[in-house]
Amino acid sequence: MNFCYEKHDYLLERIESIRHQLIKTANEKKSFTDESVVRLSQELDVYLFELQRRSEDKGLNSKNQVKTL
Asked: Rounded to two decimals, what is the model's pTM?
């Protein structure tokens, strides 16, 4: 059980780290279309998608548990 929380915490930390890098890089480059900004944005999208997928899976599991009770 703790392993799941550790993965979740790591995911949140990674999202926050990339978000900060993205903001910093976009400010430095003064462009949203710079290659490094786009790359960070795409990487952030991957982690956000995974967080959303896990949240939806958790919601489905909770609903299934309620139905079986």
From this structure: 0.72
